[in-house]
Design a protein that fits this description.
440 residues; alpha/beta; Aspartate Aminotransferase, domain 1; Aspartate Aminotransferase, domain 2; 2 domains
């Protein structure tokens, strides 16, 4: 290497100091800490693509409502565990207008981010039947959700769905669900990190398989309405956000306010439980909770034990944003389309300098430009690629920790790369490419 901006020996020493044998298996937070140290020591800013944080300002409508709530004194009072009544109604209305799904407000529950919602799901849904305790992840996916299962001592299975799209999906699901050990299926749509999007037919396939084997589908909609190839996001107008909830009544939706609403710092998300599932009784839940009714066990058992509710003032901020979106006063999709523009520019830069897009197609369609994309570099595995990129002031994460079978690849997040950083990214990728010539 001759054109690095960070001393390669310092990078290697820091990895040893941090106990990181290979960046291929390093967690997102491990890499965040390593980059923070390198930035501080070197005085060089990094092109930071490792963490999916919003890169847009939080909406004024949410901030204003939260400030007003704080001034009214809500900070001194505990919120109800199940959430504010007005917020629950706002979530129900939002789901109807943007997904065209009817759900009772009782099943609309604010959580401390969608990640806490997933944890509560595992605590409840994976304990409803003592013979069925495993989660099937339709990967690649968000690595921390698997870590949550590990923390709970729960086992899981994985399918890299890129190789099982369309008609192949049903056989892949049946291969695992047919063993009779699965309690939940979890996936994100659009997908983190590949940005592939399930079609309506594929969602029907997932729903049919889940109902055939009495499995709950947990749909992570962190990137709600962010498939920018479709004009979703107009309240009460088709096309709506695709969802498995149209095809089964055994679902839980996890909706984050971090990406779509750029409200990550307040740690508030939404969990939406179907009416049927909320009221369903599972006698095995009594091993852990005071009620065998799923919704009651979820709220007054799992969520109560985890956090005893969600930030009081943040609930008012979320309510205001949802109401503004439903009323047509806040076009959250128009705001986040900026991520698609950045992805288009960044993918062009990477491929210009020898990188290849790993997940490059969405069935027969070109991949959408969105919050993430995936790349590899010929001749380098993901651990070596990440380590070498650090020397050029570029950070990302390995696909190996996402459940992907394409372990040579890395995930790039576009959110922190604004217009002012494109020239630096281009210069650093050029240096990298010149120092890593490809075989003709």
């Amino acid at each position: 290497m001759t054109q690095t901006i960070i001393d390669p020996e310092r990078v290697r020493n820091l990895l040893r100091e941090r106990g990181v044998d290979s960046l291929a298996r390093a967690s997102i937070r491990d890499i965040v800490r390593i980059v923070n140290i390198l930035e501080k020591e070197s005085g060089q800013h990094f092109i930071r693509m490792e963490m999916g944080v919003p890169g847009l300002p939080a909406p004024a409508v949410g901030i204003g409502a939260e400030i007003e709530a704080l001034q009214r004194g809500v900070a001194s009072r505990y919120p109800m565990i199940e959430g504010l009544d007005d917020l629950k109604s706002a979530i129900s209305r939002f789901i109807k207008l943007f997904l065209d799904i009817d759900v009772d407000p009782q099943g609309c529950i604010p959580t401390v981010g969608a990640m806490m919602g997933a944890f509560a799901c595992f605590l409840t849904a994976n304990r409803m039947d003592e013979t069925k305790t495993r989660t099937l992840f339709l990967d690649p996916g968000f690595p921390v959700q698997k870590q949550q299962c590990r923390v709970l001592g729960q086992e899981f299975d994985s399918i890299d769905v890129y190789d099982h799209r369309g008609p192949k999906l049903e056989a892949a699901l049946e291969n695992i669900l047919g063993r009779g050990k699965t309690s939940t299926i979890l996936y994100s749509n659009p997908n983190n990190p590949s940005w592939i999007c399930f079609t309506e037919d594929e969602l029907k396939t997932i729903a049919r398989a889940a109902e055939r084997h009495d499995v709950i589908v947990i749909e992570d909609l962190a990137y709600l309405c962010m498939d920018f190839r479709r004009e979703t996001g107009r309240p009460g107008q088709a096309p709506y956000q695709p969802t498995v909830a149209r095809y089964t009544d055994q679902y839980i939706l996890l909706i984050s306010s971090s990406k779509a609403f750029s409200y990550a710092g307040q740690r508030i998300g939404m969990m939406v439980v179907s009416d049927t599932l909320f009221q369903r009784r599972y006698p095995d839940l009594l091993r852990y909770y005071a009620s065998d009714v799923f919704g009651r066990a979820l709220i007054y058992g799992a969520i109560y034990a985890i956090s005893s509710g969600t930030s009081h003032s943040a609930q008012y901020g979320l309510k205001a944003m949802l109401e503004a979106a439903c009323d047509g006063r806040f076009d959250f999709v128009a705001e986040v389309k900026e991520y698609g523009r950045r992805a288009h520019i960044m993918k062009d830069l990477f491929t210009r300098f020898g990188f290849r897009i790993v997940y490059d197609r969405d069935l027969d369609d070109p991949l959408a430009d969105g919050f993430y994309f995936t790349v590899s570099y010929p001749g380098l595995d993901s651990g070596r690629l990440l380590e070498d990129l650090l020397c050029y002031g570029i950070s990302a994460i390995s696909l190996a920790i996402t459940g992907s079978v394409r372990t040579e690849g890395i995930r790039a997040c576009v959110s922190q790369i604004g217009e002012e950083k494109f020239s630096d990214l281009e210069d650093r990728l050029r240096r990298f490419h010149e120092d890593h010539p490809l075989n003709p």
